Amino acid sequence: MNKTGKTILDTLLYLVTFVIIQLAIPLILVVGYMHFNPDPQQDFGNILTQNVTLNIASSIIGSLIVIALFIKLGWVSRSRAYLVSRPWATLTWVAVATIGLIIPAAGLEELLKVELPEQLQLLFTRMMHQPLGYVAIGILAPLAEEMVFRGAILRSLLNLFGGKHWVAIVLSAAAFGAVHGNSAQFVHAFMLGLFLGWLFYRTGSIIPGIVLHWVNNTIVYIMANLVPGSEEATLSQLSGGRPMIMALYVFFSLCLLVPAIVQLNQRLRR
Hints:
By secondary structure, the chain is mostly helical. It has one domain (3-267). It has helices at residues 3-36, 44-50, 52-72, 81-84, 88-111, 118-128, 131-161, 165-178, 183-203, 207-226, 235-238, 243-267. The model has no long low-confidence stretch (mean pLDDT 88).
């Protein structure tokens, strides 16, 4: 098999492995739950979408399996070279850029009229109010997803497309968006995936992406607990329907985002 064919198969292997784990773990847990809690009125779909504990457990277990598997099989680099370079200023700018991205992303989602399905939004909200929900969504998910979509998939695609790095970044971002399974999360994950892919291309490390992913999910968790309802509110709702307030939100977000991207572009020159 030639190098191109092997790279394509490797990329598909990484993606399919991740998807199978994400589907199999909740399936196994729900079947086990139904076995030990027999009830003819139980509906498989309702348990999957309404049982917060099962969803948190499946997310944590799935992420841990992905992390262990990809490290064990050598599908992601275990090099500490990037951390040894002490990139603390760069990682700080990554965090600033992440904060600046949140409002523009929310505005784009509203503009495109995409929103989470009601049951999924309810489940997500309830998970956000559980400490273990933060472990699942705020810590383990960023680590597992960066290993898969940047550390393995994007790395392979960059080797495949050579100098056409933006093709590789767009494809990896599209795959990242697609696995979330709905249009609302696809838009947000795709946008985030472009930025994450650019960071990986410039650094060759998943560390900046993990920081970005962690900061994004942590802010959502904090806001969900400090301002209940904010996690499902649109930009218009957050601004009370006042165009001037909405414009100010966007303006101040860009005051963070633009300088951060300029700084990162200078610091991460290849």
